[in-house]
Known about the structure:
Number of domains: 2
Mean pLDDT: 96
Distance between the termini: 56 Å
CATH class of the largest domain: Alpha Beta
Strand content: 35-45%
Number of strands: 23
Number of helices: 9
Shape: globular
CATH architecture of the largest domain: 2-Layer Sandwich
Amino acid sequence: MQDLQQIAQYALDALRRAGADTAEISVARAEKDELTADAGRFTLLRTTRSGGVSMKALLGGRKGVSALGSLDKDALDECARECVESARGAQPDDAEQIAPLTENGEFVSGVLQADRAALYDRAAEFLTDVECEFPTVCPEQVTADYSRGKSIYLNTNGVRFAEEDGEYGFGAMFSAKEGEETSSFNYFGVTLDNLGTRFIDLGNHRLLLGQSASSVRTVPFGEKMVGSIVLTPECFGELLSEALGTFCGNSAILEGTSPWKDKLGTAVAAPLLTVSAKPFDKRIVCGERVCEGERSADADILRGGILQSFLLSRYAANKTGHRRFVNGGGHVVVEGGGQPLAHMISGVERGLLVGRFSGGQPGSNGDFSGVAKNSFLIEGGQITKAVSETMISGNLQELLRNLQALSAETLQDGNVVLPYALCDGVTVS
């Protein structure tokens, strides 16, 4: 870390020497051990190392940025000169600023020493578990890794943050096969700070593997309807992320395209929905500690359906007069509701359990349309048959307003906390 500190200070000084009025610098080093199995056989074991620096210089309100994959001094000097030169050619913009000095800090999180033998054993155990419990499921690719990183942020206002973290990752892509028939592929991934649990027992892994085994033979959904769908946590998270980007993100607010642009402090979703970004939540592994040169914090985006904040960077906040969001907007947490999933489904006479959504970017008003994959028919309050790829369409604003229930069960994968969601008013065809 001391070495990185010296490199960061040298780079910041190089920006000053090149003529920057104010500047910021971020220097990082990372190492990753990666193990990969293809079609059930281990095919790759490697360690990769990386390092780099990113620079930002301000000169008379004009911004220049540059990045470098080397930490060599001569290269840093050249990168700093290029950064300041790019600022000289930019248009002045008073909204361009760097972080003020409010506090400095050092953060250490996760696991800083890998147990490579245990990582291999867990990955091999997973392949065996799948073969024994779900013999028709084919793990097309399985990855297990350990990543460790160090970074330093400095700026000319005197801000200094140091971070060090380490985490395990595990993911799988898979499908099921019976004779000549094959299910649609599915996947999952988790982030971990320990290897104390079998990989098949993490997240929703066993459930998703079982659903894949049940999806080799499918039936059409049948008659078109406008009604209820149940979104799995994975699918709910995907659509929620699209909604937040479309309605709360930098470009949506800067360009005035968001239908929520004038909705701060008012209800935009069902009262049962609270959405937070919580990098410091104990269920999140190695959450973001520093954002734009300031200490991150947990914060609500929606509370009780009421819009609390836009997801704005410092620049977008300065440009629009709104508050900067206190973190990068990731690590989304939606707490579970009061009823189990089975009870939630029991009230659906006919509908669809949607495991995955494949569609294009939603419109600026939230209209979406795409294919429901890895999905199941709900009949008479019961999940019955797997359905062939089925079109679903609707509007993300209406989807959030028409939320009927959130399950007590939640997915906790080290990156997010999400329940199942029952929504009404969606077209299924």
